[in-house]
Amino acid sequence: MPEAFRLALAVAAKDIRAELRSRTALLSAIVFAALVLVVFNFARDPTALAVVDLAPSVLWVTFALAAMLALNRAFTVERENSALDGLLLAPLPRGALFAGKLLANLAFVCTVEAITLPLFVLFFNVDLTDTWLGIAGVTLLATIGFVAVGTVFSAMAVRTRFAELMLPVLLLPFMVPPLIGAVQVTSRLLAGRPLSEMLGWLRLLALYDVVFVTLCAMAFSAVVDE
Amino acid sequence: MTAARAIVRRGLTLVTLAFVGLAGVYVLALGHTPIEARQGLAQKIFYLHVPAAWCSLLAFSLVGIASALYLWLHEPRLDRFAAASAEVGVAFSAVMLTTGPIWAKPIWGTWWTWDARLTLTLFLFFLFIGYLALRAAVHEPTERARFSAVVGILGMLLVPFIHLSVYLFRTLHPQPIVLKPSAPSLPPEMLRTLLSSMAVFTLLYIGLVTTRYGIALTEEAREEATDAS
Range of A207's domain? Predict the structure, then answer.
């Protein structure tokens, strides 16, 4: 295993271990996502709008809000007791540090999404028996890109005033392309459309991931290095 | 300090010149340009809307380029320029986003539509509001410069993605709207008015950025003076 990859895994493992010991952030993100779903249920008129028309948007707005909450956490924990300084002083390439943080954030956001999805099925009575694998795939594809941007922005946001407000203001415009793509693919999956109709969107999502993961990995050192 | 004052003064001179030019453009557009046959007088707003859009795109592209160069060269002048250009760009997009609906209402029959170009410029506007909010929230100058440069570069690369996704979104879901007639060949008088308006707006952009740049220099000098004493 290459050295940088091992180091990245070590950083990610540290984050995941710390999270599993307290579980506060994970639990509150999940409760938050469940609450958003419940609020959505009361925000629609069940006689006027079929649930399948609204379902993809509900799912993705919930994912986006929960991810925002999760990403805010990523570097606030490093700020306490100046833990980030310790990480930066460690003999660790910046690329590996970024990859580690990205992996930990991905694990965190994907866990929240994986628990939200069954709740969504339960609350909105959507049948996912044939499509859950496709939905999981597109969720991962869309999540990677904006979590990469979110990792860089959250490292910045913790060093600013109004950190909790700064991250959504900066990150939401960057969530627009993955969100549009994911909603489009999800609604086609739920309607049982053929793959050829989603291919354009899937390509766009994949391209977004490649461009922004690369770019964020390069920009990360400009954010953390004094 | 005096150098900064001189820059501010030069900027203000350019702004004054641009305002005189703008008055000229008004006269030219209202008095010496033919009235468009189908849209009538409503089309006159074209001579403000398009130059404002041109200037905001120019401003935001230059922010992206200056940001990329800053991360490479670490030259504080580039950062100061990017900040000034972003602020002026936000002002011009506000002009564009207000003149747009005023024009759209009589011609398209609606204040707002989720047309691809419209959505893109709206997101650009939000992106740069975020950029300015970030600058206001970081105190340390070099840190502020690095952070905003990163946002500037990422923002520049986000633009094609937003464009592509809203374009796909719209073409897959055609909406019953009268799309903007893309005037392929303007009559020479209209073209003349448009081009002179664009020149005046560009001059206004340069004047405002120069002024803002000079003000930033003055602020820095003041901060250094208070830190030293």
Answer: 3-224
Least Cα distance to A94 among A225, A203, A226 occurs for: A225
Q: How confident is the model at residue A163 (pLDDT cuts 50, 70, 90)?
A: confident
Q: What is the maximum span of chain A, computed from C-alpha positions, in angstroms?
A: 61
pTM: predicted TM-score of the whole model, two decimal places: 0.86
Q: How far apart are the first and last CA of chain A?
A: 31
Number of domains making up chain A? 1
Quote the tokens at residue A177.
Answer: 């392309």
Is B147 in contact with A156 (Cβ distance < 8 A)? yes
Q: What is the ipTM of this complex?
A: 0.87
Which of A152, A160, A174 lies closest to B134 in CB terms? A160
The percent helix, strand, coil of chain B (3-state, each to 5) is 85, 0, 15
Interface of A with B in 185-224 (CB under 8 A): 200-201, 204, 207-208, 211-212, 215-216, 219, 222-223
Q: Which residues does chain A have within 8 Å of residue B143's beta carbon, measured at their own beta carbons?
A: 159, 226
Asked if B69 reaches chain A (Cβ–Cβ under 8 Å), the answer is: no
